[in-house]
Amino acid sequence: MKKLLFLLLVLGWQSSAVAQETTGEKTPGDSNVLFILDASGSMWGQIGGASKIAIAKQEMSRLVNELENTKMGLIAYGHRRKGDCNDIENLVELGNRNKGTIIKQIKAITPKGKTPITKSIEIAAKQLQPVEDESEIILVSDGRETCEGDPCVYVKELKQKGIRFRMHVIGFDVNHQEREQLECIAKAGGGKYFSAQNAAQFKNALNSVKKQVIEVKKPTFRPPPKVKKPTFRPPPKVKAPKLNPLPKVETPKLNPAPKVEAPKLNPAPKVETPKLNPAPKVETPKLNPAPKVEAPKLNPAPKVEAPKLNPLPKVEKPKLNPPPKVEMPEVKKPEVQKPRQTDEG
Asked: How far from chain centre, in Å, is Cα 335?
């Protein structure tokens, strides 16, 4: 079962790897380009009646304007102070898509100082560390390192650390010794070196860089390698091991329990009940008879004669006079006249 899972994982990894593997370069929209522009005092040198910095500004602005779907950044050195190896400025952070902002910064550069190439690449590398996709660094310089450090060795160290980038270098009006160092930087960075001795060559060099960085080739997919079907072998037969019979274990003979005679108990001692003395006889006291009490003789109640009542006097009934006769007045009936009948009725 483990072998089967392992084969499935290998097949899945190979198919995904083959799908991503192409001989073409990038696809639109996934380019990161970081420019490093030399603004040392020597860039005021004249070529064909124009300064090298003027030619670089014109052609780099044109290239920026032609780039599509590209995240860009810009670093310049030697453009603010003379004789200062720390005069390096990150003018536009990598990831900017505003072409106008980058072109404005390019045109505002004024050459003044030295050529600290190594420290400039170091600042560029700090921006590339968090970027997962491979980035392109384009260095434009008219000379070799004039400060401390070896840029060629430093680029090799960055590659060994696993930072994903390619470094292209344009040597603008450089001598043989200067060219050797700049070529070494490009080779160590996995990119290409381009030489330019005048404005036309500088323009062609930028166009070549554009092809290396931007233009998309049609990907040619490699067919996946043929994978033989695994032939599964039946698992070997495993014989069950012969187990030795368990040893017989005899149950131990137990000695009979010793006979234990019940202890003879002594009879309980006889306890005689104590003889109780009879209760003493208590004679009841003789009570004296109650003295005879004669009832007192009561005197007879005196006779009371009822008083003689005088008879009530006779009361004669009063004679009532008859009521006077009242004569009723005669009431005359009114005469009612009958209405006369008329002829009209």
From this structure: 128
pLDDT digits (tens, 9 = 90+) for 194-207: 999 999 999 999 99
Query: Which distant-in-sequence residues (6+ apart) come within 8 Å of 63 by Cβ?
Result: 206, 209, 210
Domains in the chain with CATH codes: 26-213 (3.40.50.410)
Counting DSSP H helices and E strands in the chain, the numbers are: 7, 8
Find, among 149, 23, 140, 172, the residue nearest to 76 by Cα: 140
| Segments in the chain below pLDDT 70 | 1-30, 214-225, 232, 304, 315, 318, 326, 329, 331-345
Quick count: other Cβ atoms within 10 Å of Cβ 80?
15
In angstroms, rounded to a whole number, what is the distance separating the alpha carbons of residues 165 and 159?
A: 8
Residues 6+ apart with CB under 8 A from 101: 92
Residue 38 CB coordination number (10 Å): 26
Q: Are the C-beta atoms of 165 and 213 separated by less than 8 Å?
A: no
